[in-house]
Design goal:
This protein is of the alpha/beta class. The chain has three domains: 8-53 and 153-327, Rossmann fold; 55-146, 3-Layer(aba) Sandwich (Rossmann fold), CATH 3.40.50; 330-407, ACT domain (Alpha-Beta Plaits). It contains 16 helices and 14 strands. The chain has helices at 8-18, 31-37, 55-64, 68-73, 82-94, 108-116, 128-142, 153-169, 184-199, 217-223, 248-255, 264-278, 284-294, 315-328, 345-355, 388-400; strands at 27-29, 41-45, 75-78, 98-101, 120-122, 145-146, 175-179, 205-211, 258-262, 304-308, 332-340, 359-366, 376-384, 406-407. The protein has a six-stranded mixed beta sheet with strand order 1-2-10-7-8-9, sandwiched between helices. Helix 5 links the parallel strand 3 and strand 4 (98-101). It is globular and about 80 Å long.
Length: 410
């Protein structure tokens, strides 16, 4: 195996350092997702970790290895939320002064939790990249130690302890599916899992999942070196990174078997499905591997462990995601139906929808829509449906009755 800054030995040392600090999170058998994939699926519930994500592992190990002189100088970090909480919690446990730079508009629960761990939080940057630059300036100005969110050997080794747990809890695992942003988690998991599998005379497949609007690894892997992309908007803020790490990239290039991308509808549907099927609250970044399974991007390669990397989600975002997920999964739609302005039309549409089993949740009846004649109105009606086939049935029934329904937003 090529020499990297991270090894099985460094990950095992991190595990010893994290004993009693980070939780050994549970593994849960997920029969529904197993049926979708066609092989056994287990969920690694890192959303139940202290601070709500895997980031506590790498942050704690990194800070534990600081010298006394470095601890006295304090630490600084930049993060959209999960790394911030991990560093702040570790700093509080070790009695180290901590400053965190978070983007303006960072999820409120993550912001409040970070402050709750005693960190000084600055929200000056608009992106994670700007916050990293501000944190580095702070480090140069004050002497504080910069704690990078993913591109440091100690951070990667700390994240790799999750891979040790997976391999020990599911010894027959064939595939591990991991969310990836800058690559710290998947790099650590890959090193740990591949090394332990080799000691057993077996192999394990590692698959990474990125949000398609912020996927820096596919073009970087194609170029053979880290490249910077223009990040797009995504609900998966935890894996929205514009450039792979210089330490994580070679590990992922050599040890990760595949990288797939999922879109925003996939992510919303995954969050909703996890909530409904497993009663687990998982943030979009943590649900990315489930999005890949539901989207048919993960092929049946035997026993599969899915890493749910975090559960820190703003309730307001969760509300929007649930609504979006219902639309994406064919469970909700809004129809725009032009009608002649005469009595009985609303009642007729309502009767048709009732007979076809579509539950009406909202109705807007207006004469003030652009393009209408004086004798026309528009009925906008939102309905709950049972999936794409039921939606097609609703539309077909309305058309058969002489109406011209349009699905809003399509």
């Amino acid at each position: 195996m090529t020499d990297y800054a991270v090894s099985l030995a460094s990950i095992e040392d991190a595990a010893r350092a994290l004993d009693g600090v980070a939780q050994h999170t549970p593994i849960d058998h997920a029969s529904y997702f197993g049926e979708v994939l066609g092989s056994p699926v287990y969920l690694k519930l890192e959303n139940l970790q202290r601070t709500g994500s895997f980031k506590l592992r790498g942050a704690t190990y990194r800070l534990s290895r600081l010298t006394g002189e470095e601890r006295a100088r304090g630490v600084v970090a930049a993060s959209a939320g999960n790394h911030a909480q991990g560093v702040a919690s570790a700093a509080q446990q070790l009695g180290i002064d901590c400053t965190i730079y978070m983007p303006l508009g960072a999820p409120v629960p993550k912001l409040l939790a970070t402050r709750g761990y005693g960190a000084q939080v600055n929200t000056d940057g608009t992106t994670v990249e700007e916050c990293i630059a501000l944190a580095m300036e702070h480090a140069e100005r004050t002497g504080a130690v910069m704690i990078h969110p993913f591109d440091h050997a100690d951070v990667i080794s700390g994240q790799g302890t999750l891979g040790l747990e997976v391999m020990r809890d599911v010894p027959g695992v064939d595939t591990i599916v991991v969310p990836m942003g800058g690559g710290g988690l998947i790099a650590g998991v890959a090193v740990a899992a591949k090394a332990l599998a080799a000691l057993r005379g077996t192999d394990v497949r590692i698959v990474g999942v990125q949000a398609s609007s912020s996927a820096a690894f596919p073009p970087s892997l194609e170029a053979g070196e880290p490249v910077t992309i223009q990040r797009g908007a995504t609900i998966a803020d935890g894996i929205a990174v514009a450039r792979p790490g210089s330490l994580t990239f070679p590990i992922i290039r050599d040890m990760v078997d595949d990288v797939v991308t999922v879109d925003e509808d996939d992510l919303a549907r995954a969050v909703l499905t996890l909530l409904e099927r497993t009663k687990l609250v998982v943030e979009p970044a943590g649900a990315a591997p489930i999005a890949a399974i539901l989207g048919g991007l993960i092929k049946d390669t035997g026993t599969t462990v899915v890493v749910l990397s975090g559960g820190n989600i703003d309730p307001l975002l969760l509300q929007r995601i649930v609504a979006h997920g219902l639309v994406a999964s064919g469970r909700f739609m809004t129809l725009r139906i032009p009608l002649p302005d005469r009595p009985g039309q609303l009642a007729r549409v309502s009767e048709i929808l009732a007979n076809v089993g579509a539950n009406v949740t909202e109705v807007l009846h207006t004469r003030h829509d652009l393009g209408l004649t004086l004798n026309d109105v528009v009925l906008q009606v939102s309905v709950e449906t049972r999936g794409p086939n039921h939606q097609e049935q609703v539309l077909a029934t309305l058309i058969e009755a002489g109406f011209r329904p349009e699905v809003a937003g399509s």
